[in-house]
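$ run holo --ligand "magnesium ion" --emit tokens
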Amino acid sequence: MADLVTGIDIGSTSLKIVVLSLKGKNPKLITLGSSPLPGTGMNSDADIDLENISQVIKNLLVAIKAPNCPVVVALPESKIFTRVISDLPFLTDDELASAIKYSAEEFVPLPTDQVNLYWEVIERSKQNNRTMVFVVASPKNTVSRYMKVLNYAKLKPLALETELIASARALVGSNIYAPTTMIVQFGASSTDYAVVSKGVILLTRSIATGGLALTRAVAQYLDFEFPQAEQYKKVYGIMQDQLEGKIYQALKPLVDLMVVEAVRIIQAFQAKNKQNPIKRVVLSGAGAKLPGIVVYFANSLGLEVQEADPWFSLDKDQNMIKKFQADAPSFSVAVGLALRGE
Ligand SMILES: Nc1ncnc2c1ncn2[C@@H]1O[C@H](COP(=O)(O)OP(=O)(O)OP(=O)(O)O)[C@@H](O)[C@H]1O
Ligand SMILES: [Mg+2]
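-- output --
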């Protein structure tokens, strides 16, 4: 196992980097940092934009004095297709590979030769004649854009994995006694959902409504420029008693979309897993800092809701994370990536 590992989360608006040492009993935070990204971040296809992103990565690695060590990088949930396939009989490795290829045709809206398939067996039992597997299909053109950025930055990734796999590792871990948890990750361009039970992801979803859309809604409602709307959103949030409820009114329709998706996922999950209800909801991503969002979700879902704390399992110097308290939940992905190790 590599001692030091760097997690790099290249979001659509900002870059987050976390370096951990995995040598000791607990993982230890070595250094971290974040930096805004130019333009549309990894949403761009132009080589020049990708080169600019590499430059931002290189600059941040220098600024936070990141040691030269292996890196793990996140692929965006919104571009990836994942599925838990649970209706397979007991299969050998070869049979499983072809079964997965076959079912990928069903859930991947691209020709299967245009995606990389990766899977993890959750359960395989001869006795119960059953195989359960978590499948990730990553479009080759998305992967190659990330590889381009990493090549420009002269970084060789140990692995690429999805944002939610990383967040689940950071926020729930592999503790089989942790209650079944739904992670809701509020990014800038998307809101992503995962249901994690006994350390395993059983369901994921991504919707194309995120923090950018919330800010645009405030801008439109109050006839503000984007930067001003962004500030008002962050200060007043989804709280009825703030600013005569104006920001609340602007945000409510979109936040309700996010809630409705959560309700759908909870119902779908519950219908299939009657013995294993979702017990808590963890809000991640920088958007989890929206004032009032924890209470709004708790009231709407009737479940225990908490803000993500990506530092909880780490040994850390309090001074190091103090500076980042304002957007701690935005580091969930980067922490989880580094925790992966080799
Ligand atoms: N205090 C806050 N209150 C509300 N929203 C916030 C706050 N801080 C940041 N945000 C929002 O969080 C979003 C950025 O979140 P994050 O950094 O997790 O996104 P990203 O990783 O760049 O995007 P994505 O994961 O969608 O590609 C922005 O829309 C920003 O407005
Ligand atoms: Mg993100």
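-- notes --
The chain has a mean pLDDT of 94.
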